[in-house]
Amino acid sequence: MKLDPLDYVPRLKALKEKVGLIEAKKQLDREYLLNAIDEAKNFYELRGVIRAIAEKVL
Predict the structure, then answer these.
(1) Residue 16: CA atoms inside 13 Å, Cβ hemisphere, count?
(2) Residues 31, 3: contact at Cβ < 8 Å?
(3) Residue 27 in contact with residue 11, Cβ under 8 Å?
(4) Which helix (H) or strand (E) holds 11?
(5) How far from 35 is each of 17, 18, 20, 38, 58, CA to CA, in Å?
(6) Quick one: which of 48, 27, 51 has its CA closest to 39?
(7) pLDDT in tens, the chain (58 residues)
(8) What is the rounded radius of gyration, in angstroms, for the C-alpha atoms of the chain?
């Protein structure tokens, strides 16, 4: 399933009302990163996703 980056803010606002801002951001970031891994078409796209994950962690 392709997640549109333009849907991030509306989805964040809707989820924020249920679980709070910090938890909503964590859940959406996780969902978008896992989706990006699934959607990567080649090594270089996957490398970019892994780099984004590393920047969040480190």
Answers:
(1) 9
(2) yes
(3) no
(4) helix 8-19
(5) 23, 22, 22, 5, 21
(6) 48
(7) 677 878 889 999 999 999 999 999 999 999 998 898 898 899 999 999 999 889 888 8
(8) 12
